[in-house]
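Lab manual, section 2.4: Encoding a predicted structure.

Procedure: take the sequence of the chain (664 residues), apply the prediction step described in section 2.3, and record the output as structure tokens. A sample record is shown.
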Amino acid sequence: MLLSVIKRYGATLLGGLIIAAFVVTSVFMIGGATVGELVETGARARGAEFARLLLGPGGHVDAFLTGITRTPDAETSIRKIADLAGIESFAVFDRDGQEVYRSRSERYDWLLRDRPGGISSGDRLSKTTLTKPGAWSIVQDDRTTNPSFLTPLIRNEKTIGYVSVVADMIAQRYAFKATLARASVSLLLILFMATGLPLLLYLRRKRKIAEAADRIDFLANYDALTNLLNRRRMQEETDRVLATVRATRERMGYLYVDLDELSEINDRLGQNSGDELLTVVAARLAAVVDPSDLIGRIGADDFAVLRRRITSIEDIAALAKRIFDAICEPVELAGEIVKPRVSIGCAMVPEDGRTHSELVKHAEIAHLHHKTDKSRNLVFFEPAMDEAMHHRRYVEALVRAAVENESFELFYQPIVNGDGSRLLGFEALLRLRDENGEYIAPSVFVPIAEARGYIKAIGTWVIREATRQIAQWPQDLFVSVNLSPVQFGDGDLVRIVETALREADISGKRLEIEVVESLLLDRSDDILAQLRELRALGISIDMDDFGTGYSSLGYLWRFPFDKLKIDQSFMVALENGEPNVSRLLETIVSMAHHLKMKVTTEGVETEAQVALMKSLGCDQLQGYFFGRPMPADQAAAEILTRFRHNVAESPSDVPVLHRASHAS
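Recorded output:
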């Protein structure tokens, strides 16, 4: 800190110190000269006054010059006058410059101090002094001791002698020095107040401007949270390095590292926890890369690494493993242990791009593939991915527009009783058209909607639209909708369902909610509580796709589901002649009935399958045999018309329906 201040303001501080030193030196030099002049003036005044007294009446100057008629009283009188005038000692010289009287000895001061009658040391004035014409005076001052004063004694315009005076000016000299010192200090203070404070204010303002400029420069080039290069600077630095690739033929790898589920952490633990996680991830990422590599934060939860001087793909794979292992170490946030997860895509230089724009585009595409395939530590970009990404972005745009305009559609597939004789309800299935009016498979657009955070808005619309539609059909029919685990995340699902039921003016018994068992893997207590609240509204809670995934029986006793939906894969296996399928189906139906749950079999397409499930006591059937998913108006025209005579009748009075003609 101190070195940076000296480096930045060294010249200014040095100039200020030089000016201050010059001012102080000048003040003291001028002060010293002023004191000398004041002392000299005082000595000159005292000496001139003493000479005037000697020449005046009673001055006895003649007695001192000739030694005749000089009395002790006269000498005593002159000494008193000298003392009163502040004269320490004096000497009288005749017209030839010969000393004739000295009041005390300067040379033998300790022995002959103020000797009565005076002394004569035999000193003479120089010829240069004697030849000076007219009235003059000489003051000699060494600035430390008392000054001496020499002037001629002139009477009637004739020089009759000379007098030398040593004025007692030590006290006055000290007084002058003290007064001048105080004045100098006051002057310096005034100068400091007038110039020093403005200078300090200027330096302070300059420092703040410099700090602000540094901060602006930092924010223009670095991410304020992680201190890594920001996207703009990362692009500039990457392009700068890439400019040398053609000449050096250096191989490099551009890694796109995405922190998964950051938005969920922000929602659950707060923004501060999300920021803390980002700083931890950035520090861990910086710790595993080489100093020559470039690393930056290029998005809210996205980081980039430009790996230089690689010799093989294995180098990148090894780096990705170190990144994966380092970042995925658990971290404590807001008292909760969180295990970060990342998706990593890589684009190679120069194969996959020669500019930052190309590399980040291709690495991002590769990382999206890694999101769906975590069997590896990273995914390398392949040209075929680009076309898939274009299609994905096209579908994403369609999903976004459908969410904004509520332009999704619901298709309805009939659900009948165990022998196929009576219509019980429909399952509402989401559909999306492209610009040509063709339907996009839900397996394509639903994962994109989930990845981009649209699934909650879509799910809310599905609940509202499905309840609105079922309210227009016979009261004995129900509608079943699928829920995503995301819809349970904010804790407002029950309120959304209650609102939909109230607006449609139907009871909860006309709505069934299907969930998959993976829903209960995370935060099961919170989700189970919401499921219980939904069930309290009279809504049937169904476990969808039973027989796939974990199929853990623990979920069945932790929450008493109302219905199990046997996955359609069992019907496919049955049709393919797989062994033991019928026994498994029998076991599932029997177990569900013992747990007081109904059973719905999906994917029923043949009359033999209907007969088998009827013999096993399956409660409900669903599949192409009874009708494909269709729009609401078509369902009303075909399905409701076909079952119009027996919607509310007893199944024992109605024969088994044959395969629907439209299902062929």
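Check your result against the sample. The domain at 231-381 is CATH 3.30.70.270 (Alpha-Beta Plaits).
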